[in-house]
Amino acid sequence: MTSEITLFVNPTAGRGRGARAAQPAASALRAAGFCVRTVVGEHPEDALTRARAAVADGTGAVIAVGGDGMVNLALRAVAGTPTPLGVVAVGTGNDFARVLGLPVRRPAAAGRMIADALKCGWLRDIDLGWAGDRWFGTVLASGFDSRVNDRGNRMRWPAGRLKYDLAMLAELAAFRPFPYLIRLDGGDVREIEATLVAVGNGSSYGGGMRICPGADPADGLFDVTVVGDCGRGTLLRVFPTVYRGTHVDHPKVSVFRAAEVEIAAEGITGYADGEPLGPLPLTVRCIPAAVRVLGP
């Protein structure tokens, strides 16, 4: 493996943590004897073009520095190639790193771990989701949570997580279940009323909400969590239990496992790794061993 590796940096992640984290991560890697090249694009597509060029030139690894959005962009550069992906998780949610047990908001520790992984050959192949024309590593969300994202993304004020807290309150005020059509692995179409449908390659989204607590990103299957037609009061009672993953014990919650999921619902956007994919319907496929990741 070449000693030259690529830091793929989002300078705006976590209110500037991405830019600040790049230096200690790079220092740890250089101290371990690696030659570090930094890629910062003028915009996401430019950054992706540069990362793909680094992969084509034979970089030893691509290290995403930022949050889940930056990891999602990096996946588009390395998925389906032998180039391993490392993560210095310094964003807001960092669910990809959480799922893989990687350091969160400790850039120097993440840099040292990546250096050890490169030297010791700590590599593992994990599955990815493929939806439309995009890869994702954690969860594809639709329904109530995606409506909150839609509303939050339209809001100019306030900044940060508070914006999405206010968006959630606004969506609760107008809350209603949505009619869905779901097909699993080419079977019969199910017509259901659901609050949300989450397709999990990983277990969590939104900064540690374990919406698909049993999901294993190396088993070739998604966990599909369906929260049924519960009322506003039930939703408010169930929501806090998502952080523990115990919401799946509620009678209004069902979990299915499938390698391919087709979901349709009018007026609903699909979000994967926190990034908008576009309106439903979407067909989502689990692609086994689609990316090689660095970690113990």
TrEMBL record:
<keyword id="KW-0808">Transferase</keyword>
<feature type="domain" description="DAGKc">
    <location>
        <begin position="1"/>
        <end position="135"/>
    </location>
</feature>
<dbReference type="Pfam" id="PF19279">
    <property type="entry name" value="YegS_C"/>
</dbReference>
<protein>
    <submittedName>
        <fullName>Diacylglycerol kinase</fullName>
        <ecNumber>2.7.1.107</ecNumber>
    </submittedName>
</protein>
<dbReference type="InterPro" id="IPR001206">
    <property type="entry name" value="Diacylglycerol_kinase_cat_dom"/>
</dbReference>
<keyword id="KW-0594">Phospholipid biosynthesis</keyword>
<keyword id="KW-0547">Nucleotide-binding</keyword>
<keyword id="KW-0443">Lipid metabolism</keyword>
<dbReference type="InterPro" id="IPR005218">
    <property type="entry name" value="Diacylglycerol/lipid_kinase"/>
</dbReference>
<keyword id="KW-1208">Phospholipid metabolism</keyword>
<keyword id="KW-0444">Lipid biosynthesis</keyword>
<dbReference type="InterPro" id="IPR050187">
    <property type="entry name" value="Lipid_Phosphate_FormReg"/>
</dbReference>
<dbReference type="InterPro" id="IPR017438">
    <property type="entry name" value="ATP-NAD_kinase_N"/>
</dbReference>
<comment type="similarity">
    <text>Belongs to the diacylglycerol/lipid kinase family.</text>
</comment>
<dbReference type="Pfam" id="PF00781">
    <property type="entry name" value="DAGK_cat"/>
</dbReference>
<dbReference type="InterPro" id="IPR045540">
    <property type="entry name" value="YegS/DAGK_C"/>
</dbReference>
<keyword id="KW-0460">Magnesium</keyword>
<dbReference type="GO" id="GO:0004143">
    <property type="term" value="F:ATP-dependent diacylglycerol kinase activity"/>
</dbReference>
<keyword id="KW-0479">Metal-binding</keyword>
<keyword id="KW-0418">Kinase</keyword>
<keyword id="KW-0067">ATP-binding</keyword>
<dbReference type="InterPro" id="IPR016064">
    <property type="entry name" value="NAD/diacylglycerol_kinase_sf"/>
</dbReference>
